[in-house]
Write a structure and sequence with these properties.
This protein is α/β, with parallel strands linked by helices and 414 residues long. It folds into two domains: 21-50 and 320-412, Aspartate Aminotransferase, domain 1, CATH 3.90.1150.10; 64-314, 3-Layer(aba) Sandwich (Aspartate Aminotransferase, domain 2). It contains 17 helices and twelve strands. Strands 2-8-7-6-5 form a five-stranded mixed beta sheet, sandwiched between helices. Helix 7 (113-125) packs across helix 8.
């Protein structure tokens, strides 16, 4: 009868979408921290991944703001090309690889931030139902994007008993995936891994590249390097590009590039997915697939952001100024990293090698309980599956680090 509601069809959402949570746990913790601080409580908010000045304001790079303001309004208002402006794509490839053979073997497409690059990777290099492979500690939205696109996520133990990257666990998991699904896509967030802060060293990269080359000779293999926080890593962590030729000789190497952290422009949503492989025909296929995917999802990206970042990357004087202004932010973060390493060593905290980046994680057998104890003291961190809590030093002034570490010591039983 008209007006009768069938309980079985009470929701117009498809079943797989009807039960999803709309709350991001990190943003929920951030909101609680802000409420308590606004009420007058002394709060350390180490939750959100945005670089803050010591006074709590968002850190920005002035030359970036000026570059955005200089873009002619009619150019900014016009549609961007589907895959992004050619100048932008060339500039991003040069930013990652510089001039030379690697750049010549790379194609790219603009994306809305690094998250768009991850989305493109999942939907173009894995079939629905297949599993992404990543480390046991990972950025939570990897799982969200995989689920949303009908893919799965599988992990391998990130750290060996020695404390270094668990190469044997990686190789075993990669071999198993190739046998089970006939292809593999690896997400590797380094330098400055979110959430642990870990950066692979030269020996680890060399070994990983060898594993990738051998595996790629057996079945289709794609390795995505997520560079979200790389600009804030130590100089030694930037040598990973030396190992791309070996990997790309047998596999496709993707790079998720983002202006969000590197240019302190989280809201501009400017990013790119780069794809490097030796075969010209395959590069053409990938470029076509990414263009098609752009049109079928967001159509095109924020043209104002693309044009401004293009200028900052390609004009030497502007780039030099932006680099200089970023150096101040790197020093600000490095001061916090140094303070944490000193205090944490004295307190006996257990945590991975940490040389730079927005985050560090402290190991604890009961992360939820640890985070709850810290909240009682007005300190907000993010509990992680697998036995750790994530601390966003990007938003924690160095002066607050001793209080933070002391509370972590109490909460973890150190």
């Amino acid at each position: 009868m008209p007006g009768t509601v069938n309980p079985a069809s009470a929701s117009t959402l498809i079943p797989s979408a009807a039960g999803r949570s709309g709350d991001d746990p990190i943003f929920a913790l951030n909101s609680e921290a802000k409420r308590r601080a606004a009420a007058g409580e002394s709060v350390i908010n180490a939750t959100l991944g945005a670089l803050m000045e010591d006074d709590g304001s968002l850190a920005v790079i002035p030359s970036v703001i000026e570059a955005l303001a200089r873009v002619p309004s009619q150019k900014a208002a016009a549609y961007a090309p589907i895959s992004g402006d050619a100048k932008f794509l060339e500039a991003v490839i040069a930013d990652v690889y510089g001039p030379g053979e690697l750049a010549a073997q790379t194609v790219a497409a603009a994306t809305p931030g690094g998250t768009g690059a991850l989305y493109h990777a999942l939907t173009n290099f894995l079939e629905p139902g297949q599993a992404l492979l990543t480390t046991s500690y990972f950025w939570g939205p990897y799982q969200t994007i995989a689920s949303h696109t009908g893919r799965r996520l599988e992990t391998f133990e990130m750290f060996a008993p020695s404390g270094g990257f668990h190469l044997a666990a990686f190789e075993a998991a990669l071999t198993r995936q190739l046998e089970q699904q006939g292809r593999a896509l690896l997400f590797l967030n380094s330098p400055c891994h979110n959430p642990t802060g870990y950066s692979l060293d030269e020996r680890e990269w060399e070994a990983l590249a060898g594993i990738v080359q051998r595996a790629g000779e057996r079945a289709p293999l794609v390795v995505l390097v997520d560079l979200a926080y790389a600009r804030f890593g130590s100089k030694s962590s930037q040598s990973w590009t030396r190992h791309v030729p070996q990997m790309s000789s047998a596999a496709t190497v993707l790079v998720a590039w983002s202006a969000s952290k590197a240019f302190a422009q989280y809201g501009a949503r400017v990013g790119a997915l780069l794809a490097t492989c030796g075969a010209a025909a395959e590069r053409t296929r990938i470029a076509n697939a990414l263009s098609f995917a752009c049109r079928g999802t967001w159509s095109n990206c924020n043209h104002l952001g693309l044009l401004a970042i293009s200028e900052l990357l390609s004009e030497p004087a502007l780039r030099a100024r932006a680099d200089l202004e970023r150096e101040r932010l790197i020093r600000l973060l490095d001061e916090r990293v140094g303070a944490f390493n000193r205090e944490a060593a004295r307190a006996g905290l257990q945590y991975p090698r940490y040389e730079g980046g927005f985050f560090v994680s402290v190991f604890t057998p009961e992360p939820e309980a640890c985070a709850a104890k810290l909240r009682e003291e007005g300190i907000f961190v993010v509990p992680l599956k697998g036995g750790a809590v994530r601390i966003a030093l990007c938003s924690t002034p160095a002066r607050d680090v001793p209080r933070l570490v002391a509370a972590l010591g109490r909460a973890t039983g150190r």
